[in-house]
């Protein structure tokens, strides 16, 4: 297990789960749009099948997203603590074009 945490396998697992998450999310959104849009009447598939497939793909996206976040936290190459996942951004829009937060401006200055 220690070799898995220190080698490149965890880096590859993180990238692979992120890529699979994006592909599944894209498929889920496309299936949802095609199911609820004007294409729903032209389909040869029954509605209960497309809705069930959309629901199962959505759950699979959540599983791979949890795996992606888990491998990111466990990876020791870049230290991302578990507490960083629940942190809310402190940026507020103040009409600035550069989009920097106050804390970032203070760190740069």
Integer tally of domains: 1
The coarse silhouette is: elongated
End-to-end Cα distance: 43 Å
Percent in strands = under 5%
Q: Which structural class fits the helix and strand makeup?
A: mainly alpha
**Biggest sheet statistics:** none
Low confidence ranges: none
Count of alpha/pi helices: 4
**Percent helix range:** 55-70%
SSE order: HHHH
Mean residue pLDDT: 77
Number of strands: 0
Radius of gyration: 20 Å
Describe this protein's structure.
With 109 residues, the chain is mostly helical. It contains 4 helices and no strands. α2 (9-36) runs antiparallel to α3 (47-74). The termini are far apart. The model has no long low-confidence stretch (mean pLDDT 77).
Task: Record the SSE blueprint.
Blueprint: H1 2-6, H2 9-36, H3 47-74, H4 102-108
Helix pairs in contact: 2-3
Please provide a brief summary of the model.
This protein is mainly alpha-helical. Helix content is 62%, strand content 0%.
Which features would summarize this protein structure in a list?
4 helices; mainly alpha; 0% strand; 109 residues
